[in-house]
Amino acid sequence: MYNRYSGDPYWTTARYNSTCGCGDTIKKGTDIFYYPNNKKA
């Protein structure tokens, strides 16, 4: 078991269409790895 913190990245589902930091498109409903500290997928 390990400690979890509020800033730890986690898997979630995209709620709307968007673009990731590298420029790829993210479609609604896609599983994404979300980084809450910098709000990037």
Describe this structure in words.
The structure is a single chain. With about 40 residues, the chain is mostly beta strands. The protein has one domain (about 1-40). The chain is built from no helices and four strands. It has strands spanning about 10-15, 20, 25, 30-35. The strands form two sheets. Strands 1-4 form a two-stranded antiparallel sheet. Strand 2 and strand 3 form a beta hairpin. The protein starts with 9 loop residues before the first strand and ends in a 7-residue tail after the last strand. The relative contact order is 0.34. The model has no long low-confidence stretch (mean pLDDT about 90).
Features:
41 residues; mainly beta; two-stranded antiparallel ribbon; 4 strands
Helix content: under 10%
Number of domains: 1
Q: What is the global morphology?
A: elongated
Ends apart, CA distance between termini = 25 Å
Strand runs, count:
4
Share in β-strands: 25-35%
Mean pLDDT, as a whole number?
88
Structural class: mainly beta
Low-confidence stretches: none
Side-by-side strand order of the widest sheet: 1-4
CA radius of gyration is 11 Å
Give the helices and strands as they follow along the chain.
Answer: EEEE
